[in-house]
Amino acid sequence: MNKTSPTLVQGFTLIEMTVVLLLITLLASVAIRETNSLSFQVRYEQTQERLERIREAILGNPRQIINGQQAISGFVADMGRLPVDLHELLEQNFCSDRTYSTQTTCEAASKIWKPQPDWAFDSASGLWYGWRGPYLNISGSAVDKDAFVDGWGNFAANNTDHDYGWKLSSNTPETGDLTVFSYGKDQSAGGNCSDSDYAGDCSVHILKRDYQTDISPGITVLVKGQRFSLDSHCSNALYTTRADCETNGGTWYGGCSESSFANSATCVAAGKIWNSCSITAFTTQTDCEANQGVWYGDGYGCSVATQLDKASCTGTWHSCSDKNQITRAACEATIPASNWFGDGSSSESRLLCFNIYHRSNGTIVPLNSTSTLPIQEDGNQHTMVFSFPLNTNINIGQAIVALYYQRGSDGCKTTMPYPLDSKPVTLTVHPRTSLPVINW
């Protein structure tokens, strides 16, 4: 009779189980290390991306191109300065201690309320200026200490830290530069951003030349000398009477109600009306010019209406709006300075000054040229280079340029543009580029 052998039960030996556990542990360790490495890489890349966002918030996005030039935007272009801290990029008005969110509670706690100017129009220059952020978009509140942290989660140490864990260093390496740091994975200063252990500092540098242009070498302006004409007192020389001039949108500079009468004596003798100011309501030079009028006083030219220059004048020649002054020096030495019209020659010389207005420190600031240059009023185009004091810088963004009469004791007469009917010109200042030649 056959007997069936009992079934043998087989299992793992202790050595085999130990080897399997070691392999599992080794694979788990490798997986954890790879996961950590991937997590560190993501945090590193997030830090780099946020540094770039900070730079764009301050200087604008270099990838936005309009007509072949970078579109100008950002905090500096609007405010005309670098931010003091990163909170300024997120919120217009805030307290020096983030515990307090209103001006009332801030000042009641003896803290400092830090307002930024509203976006507003400056009528003197024709420029807009002020804060129009936020320049960085966040999902939470700007008063939170972790409102805009780096990839490692470094956050503001206290309620008076307005950099959200980032570190700002000004004037590095040169005056006017700004560096924004992340202290990396180890949250302490030192090391290089490319270090393999991610402990090195990452940073973005904003250099002075990124947002300012030095204009002290000079600004070139092409100007057409405007001949002072006896034939028309209108900005549009086609019209010789005030009525025709103003009906057709011209500016009547003042003087006689009709042309051919260049001074009050000849105008009145012909039975016409003489106005000493281009705005008829004003009868004194002070009032006239205070209201943007042009003062002609008693006018210019020969007392004999048909004689058009001093050389041929057999009567009395007037070269100054004040008929009692016969030399240019005496004419322009009065206070306010009278207007010198010249001797009726084909190319009278006149002094011009040049101003440029730009956004600076939250307001509009004029920069005045150090040179006042003569122009021959001969109807031809002239190249003029106006210089500025050493190390005169203009911020990126929009600026306004204007030419004015340089008038004796009054200096640069900013109420009298040259020519009188000209308007200021808007100029866009781009980073790391020189200003273009201005066609006036």
Q: Report the mean per-residue pLDDT as an integer.
A: 86
Strand content: 15-25%
What coarse outline follows from CA principal-axis ratios? elongated
The number of distinct helices, counting runs of at least 4 residues, comes to: 9
Number of strands: 24
Helix content: 10-25%
Low-confidence stretches: none
Q: Describe the sheet with the most strands.
A: 6 strands, antiparallel
- The count of domains is 3
Gap from first CA to last CA: 126 Å
What is the gyration radius calculated from CA atoms? 36 Å
Secondary structure category: alpha+beta
Structural description of this entry:
This protein has 440 residues and is an alpha+beta fold. The protein folds into three domains: 25-206, no CATH class; 211-227 and 347-440, Sandwich (Immunoglobulin-like), CATH 2.60.40; 228-345, no CATH class. The chain has helices spanning 14-59, 75-79, 87-90, 103-108, 208-211, 242-247, 264-269, 285-290, 328-333; strands at residues 65-66, 69-70, 94-95, 113-114, 120-122, 127-129, 167-170, 178-182, 202-206, 212-214, 219-224, 255-256, 274-275, 301-302, 317-318, 348-360, 363-368, 373-377, 381-386, 393-395, 397-407, 411-417, 425-429, 438-439. Strands 16, 17, 18, 21, 22 and 23 form a six-stranded antiparallel sheet that branches. A hairpin with a 2-residue loop joins β16 and β17. The longest helix has 46 residues, at 14-59. The protein is elongated, with a radius of gyration of 36 Å. The mean pLDDT is 86.
